[in-house]
Protein 1
Amino acid sequence: MATCSVCGVRKAVVYQKHTGLRLCKECFMENVQMRVKAEIERWRMIEPGETILLGLSGGKDSWVLLDTLTQIHDPGRIIAVTIIEGIPGYNRREYAERVRMKAREYGVDHIMTSIKEYTGYTLAEIVERAFKNGLRVSPCTFCGISRRRILNHYARMYGADKTATAHNLDDESQAAFINLLRGDWEGLLRQHPQSQPASPLIVPRVKPIRKIYEWETATYAYLGGFPLQETECAYINLMPTLRARVRRALYRLEEERPGTLLRFMETLDTLLEEEASKLKPQPLPRCEKCGEPTSHGRRLCKLCELLEKAGIQRPQYAEAYRRGGEVLKLYRLRVSEGGGRDE
Ligand code: SF4
Ligand code: ZN
Ligand code: ZN
């Protein structure tokens, strides 16, 4: 390969199709870091002194998030959380231990937990029950909702100001496209970095690597020598059909016209900015079982509803709430003391 287009000294190892640049390892990693920093600053995602709870699965995207964020924000104010899903052969405790060791090298605190610890069941147990009960819901849906809930739970518990997740440009553009196809206007606005959470009980979420392509996070993680799992999740091919189709279609478009996904998200960012910033947290109805926020007209939150359909009536988090709801009480105290957010 040719010489790096930026430094003109080192050998290029990456061809960045959407810019036409050929980059050496150092210039490529710096390019990603600068873009993450620019995105954080553009939307003022993170302010100095804030405590950030970071989802660290140990996958390529989460390493990029940790590596770039710790260069921008004080690692002493970052808490990484690794959630073990409980999928046979995937993301086992031994691997999570390696993730923990690596996280500590960055000087961040680390919490290890699992879907089982929160709900009382591993993801595999939930999926098995769901299938037995004839519930046709993708394991990724259970997985995504549970992980979001667990992150928010710990964010409240540790008084974090924000949660940071490692959604990349491919994830974000797929989600936006699906929201457009479904006509889900609110979902689309909620994706925007200017929008605030639906309820004061949800800690604001940021996605600092939302403008980094998935191939770039994979390359960054590889060049950076991060520990990556060799096994793939056994449920990867059971992802919701619409998501799989949109994914394929967007890849084709990007292949034919490099930069398409980036332009798509940039356009949405500009178009939706004003509307998204009008969305404010509101007091929402609370789930009868677990006390978490739910939408108007619903008895249960999404997670309780799905678990109930899968035949799980009394998940552990709901039992903990029934016994006292300590975490929610603590959180209410904190937000009312702060004088800002309240129910
Ligand atoms: Fe979870 Fe689906 Fe990812 Fe597997 S592929 S870890 S089930 S989101
Ligand atoms: Zn270079
Ligand atoms: Zn609930």
Protein 2
Amino acid sequence: MSAQSASIPRHIAVIMDGNGRWAKQRGLPRIKGHEAGAESVKVLMKSAREAGVEIVTLYAFSVENWTRPQDEVSGLMNLLPRMLSKHEKILHQNETRLRAIGRLDQLPPKTRKELDRVMAATEHYTTRQLVLALSYGGRAEITDAMKSIAEKVKSGELSPEDIEDQTISDHLYAADLPDPDLMIRTSGEHRLSNFLLWQLSYAEFYFAPEFWPDFREEAFGKALTEYGRRQRRFGGVNAC
Ligand code: IPE
Ligand code: IPE
Ligand code: MG
């Protein structure tokens, strides 16, 4: 299916969880789970494109994930640029723009450099977007938005009476993106872990039991089917 229909989410946000447990189950180091998880990203992008999903936001590394053991953090920070260079051609083939949200200045220079390079190389695509949440925290994002709003109030560019919900939305890391329609979390955990706190206000939530490396076409198909059955009301009343 290529056309956008009402039962297909335009924007999907994914908490890719369970890489470590997947590896542990197999007696492998955690980084092997992250590597296997990178393959699931490839599969998800293909399935999402075929279904007609325009935007995919992936929680790849949280602000809290910096507290993990040094070898895991550096393993992840090295994996990202490797995956970006390996799969950049897929982004071009599918006219997908790569973007990133989060405190990107905290990323190691090598990681940041490759990220910036691929983001610049795909900037002109308007068909699809892949958004990576890196060194991302929902509270950090709202805090950063508040700081820029406060600066504008201080300089007289904005007056406090004019601050509305939209003002906050306009100061988020990727302000032009529509809110996600569907949020998927894998590995059987039922929490947000500081992901897109503002943007997920009216998203449908779907929790999958599979660890992220096992979340492939069929599992994604189930999430889409379930989304198609949901009735979104946005606080209103459905005529039925
Ligand atoms: C998610 O998998 C990936 C990242 C947080 C980077 P985890 O690493 O959290 O895997 P589990 O939850 O420990 O199994
Ligand atoms: C959320 O997973 C972050 C990412 C998937 C990048 P975590 O594994 O870090 O979350 P908690 O610790 O289980 O809440
Ligand atoms: Mg986890």
Protein 3
Amino acid sequence: MVIVGAGPSGLVLGNLLRASGIDTLILERASRDQVWTRARAGFLSAHSARVLTEHGLAAGMLRNGRSHDVCAFRDANGEFTLRYGQLGRGEVHTVYPQQHLVTDLISEYLSRGGELRFGATVTEVDPQTATVRYRDAQGDGEVAGRFLAGCDGGNGVTRQAVAAASVSRHTRDHGITWLAVLAQAPQSMAAVTYALHDNGFAGHMARSPEVTRYYLQIPPTDTPAAWPDERIWAELGVRMRTEEFGPLRQGPITERQPVRLRSDVLDPLQHARLFLAGDAASLISPSAAKGANLAIMAAEVLAGALADALLRDDERALAAYSRTCLPRIWRAQEFSHWMINLLHGPLGADPAADFQRALCRARLDSLRDSRAHQDFFAENYVGI
Ligand code: RFL
């Protein structure tokens, strides 16, 4: 079995297949150091925590992850918090940085006897023969499996190979850009905090005791160079209303990366003998922290289906793979879209923008006041 990509989806898949005794090769373009240090997601859903625990992949998360069950919203009317762990289904997040999870998954995969080649870039994919061509320091190579798993993210070659076949592609550019910031500083507030402001959205998310992620909505044409440290902290201060709620704990900014909010879902998630999982299957905006969790969900479903096919010659679950995953992907997309509409009024001052901003405020009021609305939020925020 050949897997392209050593992110959360490829590594969870590889680990589960190795646990079933299936031979696996993961080809990963980046170096081991790059994969170990790439900071991205941090909020694992209850479902992800359960999958990792059930399959013996949760030792690091259980040791160093932190339970998180409250989020806060700030706007001109003040701040309110939602204890989502006591709402909806009562589920909570576990905060565990993605690069730590990936590091754990790599060492477990290798100890299960899995093969993993870093610095191996897949250049061509043939879904009919389940063959990939790749380039590494030794030159060009080719390898084939019974099946291929495309776990190479949102811009990968496997997604292009499936998209080129006659599949439907549901895509949407939300027209919003965030500057994703990592600060070498402890978190400033106890909870994830979403701030709505006429200047644009700002977010605060814990990562580790020393590192905090912030997001700032920025004009799509801005480059990271337009946002030096001082400007980031000043604008976060304005949007987070620090005069009213107290200062942010500042530190050096170690990453400033524009993230365009986009959704992109392929249907079906396969072509011939190539199956997609994670961002390769569906891109989702980070507004509701779903991407890594969808990756883990799909990897578990795909691992079970591949084990049936490879060990028991039963391809029914594999044939149903897209039908199993797509409704869950669309639920997450729907909630993520709901969050985008909640958090972003339009920038600028015209009557249409005023109307949209008033709708955002009304949505937030409803979330503040309505228990039914809060239960909906909690169930979808942590669930898949
Ligand atoms: P990944 O993690 O992108 O891994 C794909 C891997 O494939 C490799 N690759 C190739 N290898 C060989 N040959 C090629 N041709 C290759 N092309 C690519 C890449 O080097 C890489 O190692 O995909 P995967 O496994 O599907 O996992 C998806 C998640 O990483 C992603 O959805 C999340 O990080 C999204 N996300 C968040 N998700 C959450 O659930 N909770 C969060 O709080 C959260 N925060 C975030 C995020 C994504 C962010 N960015 C950078 C878009 C915050 C940010 C800023």
